[in-house]
Amino acid sequence: MRLVLKILINLALPGVVWAQNTVAPEDAIRAALQNHPLVKAAAFDVQAKKYAEKSALNLPNPEVNAESPTGQFYAVGVLQSFEFPTVYARQKQVAKAETALAQAGQRMSENDLRYAVRTMYLDAQVADYQSRQWRTRDSLYQAIALAAGRQFDAGEIDFLQKTLVENEAGKVARERFAAEQLALTATAQLKTLTGLADWDALLPLRPDTTGLGSSSGPGANPAILYEQQAVQVAEKQVALAKSKALPNFSIGYMNQGERETPMDYRFRASIGLPLWVGQYRAGVNVAKAESQAAVARAAAQSQSVTLQLQRTDTEALTALGFVRYYEQEALPRSRALISAVLRMRDAGQTDYVTFLKTLDEAFAIQREYAVQIQAFEMARIQRLYLAGQ
Questions:
Q1: For 43, how many CA atoms within 13 A lie in the half-sphere containing its CB?
Q2: How far apart are CA 148 and CA 351, in angstroms?
Q3: Which of 3, 109, 140, 363 has the fewest CB neighbours in a 10 Å radius?
Q4: Is the model's pLDDT at 167 over the cut of 90?
Q5: Which helix (H) or strand (E) holds 79?
C-alpha cells in the first residue's frame, strides 16, 4: 500500500504534464485565426466592401439612339445622365464607412474565435485534469479491492465489506472511462477548431493571474466599436439621402435640324428638378431615424459591456480566493487525509465503510479545486473577450 500511496501523491499533484509536444493557448489561437472558415469569410467581406468603393461613381449607361427628326434623314445621337456631383461624393463616403464597418465585423469575428478557442482549451485542460485524477483513483481502488479480496479469503473482513469495496472500485472504473472519453473528445474538438493536429499535451491546469486587476475599460470591445462604426455609416446615409434632393442632369448630342445645322446647335442638355419634396423628405427622415437607432444600439452595447466587465471582475476575484484557499489549505489537507486513512487501513484501525467515505471526501476536494480554477479561468477569459483581447 505504501507504493500505491507514493504513486497517488505524485499523480494527484496538479499541473503535471507527461507528454513532450505541448500546445499553448496562444499557439491554438494563432492557428485558428489562420485556418477557421469564419475568419476567412470576414476577410472576404472586407474585400467585397473595398471593391464596392469603386462602384460609388455609378453613372447610368449612355443612351445611343437614331432618329429622323425632319423626316428626311436619320441622325445618330448620344445621351448621358448623371446625378448632382455631391451624390457621388457622398456615395463614396458611405462605401468607405461600410468598408470600415466590415473591418470592425472582422475584428469582432476574430475576438469571438479567440474566446471560443480559449474556452475550448480550458474545457480540454479540465477534462484532462479530471481524467488523470480518476486514473489515479482507479489505480488506488483496484489495489484496495485486491487487498479486500485477500482479507476476505483470510477471514479478516466479512462479505459485506468485500462487496462494498468491489462495488466502489467498479464505479470508479466507469468514472475513469467516462472521464477519459470526455478528455479525448475535448482534445479532438480543439484540434478541429484550430486545425492543429501535431500535439499531444496541453499546459497544466492552473490559474493565470497575468493582467488581473488591469483597468482596461470597454472602449476596445469589438462589439462596441462595431456599433460605433454602424453609427458612422448611418450618419453618412443621412447625408446621402439629403443629396438625393439635389437636381440631376443629362447632356447629349443629337442633330434635330437640317444636315447643315451648325455643330453648336446639335447638343442638348437638361436638368431634373426635385419637385416631389415629400418623397425626398421621407427618405431623409428614414435615414435620420436609422441613425438615431444606431446611436441607441451603440449606447446599449457600451452599457451592456460595462455591466459584464463589473460582474466578471467580481467573479474572477471570488473564484481566485477559492483557488488560493484550495492551494494553501484544502489540497494539502486532502493529501494528508489520504495518507492518514491509508495508514489507518493498513493498521486495521478503520473499517472499509469509513475508509472509502474518507477517500471520497479527499478526492472531492481535488475535483472541487479543478471546478474553482475553471470558474476563475472562465472569468478571466470573459474579461479578455470583453476587452477585445
A1: 9
A2: 11
A3: 3
A4: yes
A5: strand 75-82
> How far apart, in whole angstroms, are the C-alpha atoms of residue 134 and residue 178?
9
* Dist. CA 375–CA 359, nearest whole Å: 25
Q: Are 168 and 147 in contact (CB under 8 A)?
A: no
Per residue in 216-237, pLDDT (tens digit) is 677 788 999 999 999 999 999 9
Q: Which domain holds residue 70?
A: 2-386
Note whether 33 and 39 are within 8 A (CB).
Answer: yes
CATH number at 151 reads 1.20.1600.10
- The stretch 34-45 carries a mean pLDDT of 91
Q: Is 192 exposed, middle or buried (0-12, 13-18, 19+ CB in 10 A)?
A: exposed
Upper half-sphere CA count for residue 335 (Cβ side, 13 Å): 19
Q: Which residues share a beta bridge with 202? A: 23
Query: Beta-carbon neighbour count of residue 251 at 10 Å?
Result: 13
**Of 113, 172, 164, 116, which is closest to residue 140 (Cα–Cα)?**
172
Helices and strands (H, E) in the chain, number of each type: 9, 6
- How many structural domains comprise the chain? 1
> Distance (Å, rounded) from C-alpha 246 to C-alpha 228?
29
- Single-letter residue type at 123: D
Q: Do the beta carbons of residue 126 and residue 205 sit within 8 Å? A: yes
- Which candidate, 388, 17, 30, 6, places its Cα nearest to that of 217? 388
pLDDT tens for each residue of 94-138 = 999 999 999 999 999 999 999 999 999 999 999 999 999 999 999
The CA distances from residue 106 to 41, 42, 99, 109, in Å, are: 9, 5, 10, 5
Rounded CA separation 244/251 (Å): 19
pTM: 0.84
Q: How far apart are CA 380 and CA 320, in angstroms?
A: 10
**Rg of the Cα atoms in the chain:** 36
Q: Are strands 201-202 and 22-23 parallel, antiparallel or unpaired?
A: parallel
Burial of 19 per CB tally in 10 Å (0-12, 13-18, 19+) = exposed
Which cell numbers hold the place of 327? 492551494
CA angle 69, 70, 75 (to 5 degrees): 50
